[in-house]
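Help needed: design a sequence for this.
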């Protein structure tokens, strides 16, 4: 993702992107293309709205630990300062947050990862979500290799 887009997420959701994510060694960053920026932005906003609604403490606040593309689709993982709630035995207040993330991970299959236009998941060769135009470019570049 372009640095200025990434920076906008860091600026607008400072609690969700702690320093370790932004400046770790090496910095992890968002390992996705620009086409999903709006999706990620809305996802972060929705997660914070829910965290505020249930009056989540700072220690519980969702922190992004991974945001990447795998098998063509989005993988977005959060934890908090207490631990990794994904491994909690008790159903936690994080349950609703995971539902919100699941919706976004499903939604990404209809958004071109490169440009954000409506797209679909292509499953031959490397899996990817592309609109028709980006797929044409992709195929042309594949042919040139
Ligand atoms: Zn596209």
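Sure. Designed sequence:
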């Amino acid at each position: 993702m372009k640095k200025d887009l990434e920076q906008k997420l860091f600026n607008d959701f400072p609690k969700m992107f702690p320093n370790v994510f932004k400046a770790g060694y090496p910095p992890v960053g968002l390992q996705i293309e620009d086409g999903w920026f709006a999706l990620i932005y809305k996802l972060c906003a929705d997660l914070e709205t829910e965290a505020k609604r249930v009056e989540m403490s700072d220690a519980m606040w969702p922190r992004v630990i991974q945001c990447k593309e795998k098998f063509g689709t989005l993988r977005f993982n959060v934890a908090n300062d207490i631990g990794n709630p994904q491994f909690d035995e008790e159903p936690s207040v994080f349950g609703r947050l995971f539902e919100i993330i699941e919706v976004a991970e499903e939604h990404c299959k209809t958004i071109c990862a490169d440009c954000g236009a409506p797209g679909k998941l292509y499953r031959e060769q490397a899996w990817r979500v592309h609109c028709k135009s980006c797929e044409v470019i992709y195929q042309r570049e594949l042919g040139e290799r």
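The chain has a mean pLDDT of 88.
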